Amino acid sequence: MLLGDIAHVRTGDKGDLSQFSVIAFDPADYPRLLAAVTVPRVLAHLAGLRVRQATRYALPGLGALNFVLEGALSGGVTRSLALDAHGKSLGAQLLDLPIDDALRVEDAE
Amino acid sequence: MRPEPIRIGAGAGFAGDRIEPALELVEQGDLDFLVFECLAERTIAAAQQLRQSDPHGGFDPLLLERMRRVLPAARARGVRIVTNAGAANPVGAAHAVAALARDMGLQGLRIAAVTGDDVLDLVRGAEHPLIDRPGTSADLARIVSANAYLGAGPIADALAQGAEVVITGRVGDPALFVGPMVHAFGWSLDDAPLIGRATVIGHLLECAGQLTGGYFADDGRKQVPGLARLGFPFAEVSADASAVLGKVAGSGGALTLASCKEQLLYEILDPGAYAQADVVADFRSVRFAELGPDRIAVSGGDGRQRPDALKVSIGYDDGFIGEGQISYAGPGAVGRARLAAAIVEERLAIIGAPVTELRSTLIGLDSVDRTGRPPEVDPREVRLRVVGRAATAEAAALIGREVEALYTNGPFGGGGATAAVRPVLAVASTLIPAAQVRPAITLVEA
């Protein structure tokens, strides 16, 4: 199972940080997100991305996680040399993150 | 007395947004207010430079076109308009809209300009710590603009003074929507939980079509019908700051629980602390309920006392970016593109080009991908992109020139070379005490 099978993602930007939400299609899958979509796994999946600091916020009432990746936009949208300066295409690259039911929330914490 | 709900439509989510959806909202959305959000982070810095060359300019160049299209229908239906398209010159924009209204036979149209966001004089010459990176504002050599994010107060005041069109410069995007609510319901801006909930609604609407199915479709996973006729959203807001979200029947797009959740979290950092001029909003208790097709109820949200300081965006001149691109196809395309990149880099070193941060990527392979994984199949075509930074336009141009020289000096089969140079207006952020910022309203009548 891949992340895109159970969740959808939207990416935004603020200055030099990239933000994306990961939202369960079915709120019943939220515990799977909590267990499998962790900061270390996200950073390992986006191995080509340089990040100063990464934070995950949990929104159980919405069945969603919110990720903030500081320093991810090579200096910020307005001065970045990157083709996709906003990093709009970033969140979509998470959709093939493997979701393994053997992962447990306890392991993630 | 329990005031009737009001309807606020989102007519634009960025400066270049489509115009027809706003007209559709005015004509068929039964609106009370229409909001055009047209000001990206650095737009105002560019506008400030325009104003320096033309004292009457410096506002969104599309403002007059938007007004020309919607004003007759808006006035006939009593729809009042709020927009931040005033950019670096809200008063100039108000006069230009007044002149347009007179030309269109809309005499007497009352237009308000909200000013006070321009804090360049406060920021220049002082050392304000930057909040998005180490250092202070004094480290930014060539500052061209500094604008504070104002709150909803001056917008509500302008509406109370009878303005039919309110034109601002920099305000927090949600405030464009909270202002009409505060005016219509007579809310106190000190009621933090209420203004927090109102901020949720404003935030949901501020990107217009991104709530109704734009920036959402993904073939096979998330279907959205009619994106070429995407309908923009409106909110029917009640006096308790709950709302029902909708769009015009028959318009394209889809307003769903999923699209609402995505937009709620869009560009939000800590969902428990969304700091605006009027409130620190808390999104964690927001809930959506589907009332019918393209009809979603939004409730919940909270707020805490507003911060003492306002966020300020500082625009500064940051030199130039030079770029060149060229395409390769067929077997071995990737290898020839990589050879081409190496040649350009060596050439720039040989001629001593004063460029920094030079980087080469292959579009179709590794230009936006950040997984770092090699492709499973060798692509049939790739496009080399070489880009770097320079202090002058002349130096930046050397990059594109060396890429174009690959036509006759590089690997075989390079086609479609392009070269570009652009000035960089970068943005840094700081905070200044809210008490130092004095919003003002100028009324103009057509």
Automatic annotation (TrEMBL), chain A:
Domain of life: Bacteria
UniProt-listed InterPro entries: AtuA-like_ferredoxin_dom
Domain AtuA-like ferredoxin-fold: 2-99
One family name in Pfam for this protein: AtuA_ferredoxin
PANTHER family found in the cross-reference section: PTHR47708, SI:CH73-132F6.5
Protein's UniProt name: AtuA-like ferredoxin-fold domain-containing protein
Native source species: Sphingomonas trueperi
Lineage: Bacteria, Pseudomonadati, Pseudomonadota, Alphaproteobacteria, Sphingomonadales
From TrEMBL, chain B:
InterPro entries in the record: AtuA_N
Origin superkingdom: Bacteria
Domain Acyclic terpene utilisation N-terminal: 6-442
Protein's name according to its UniProt entry: Acyclic terpene utilisation N-terminal domain-containing protein
UniProt organism field: Sphingomonas trueperi
Phylogenetic lineage: Bacteria, Pseudomonadati, Pseudomonadota, Alphaproteobacteria, Sphingomonadales
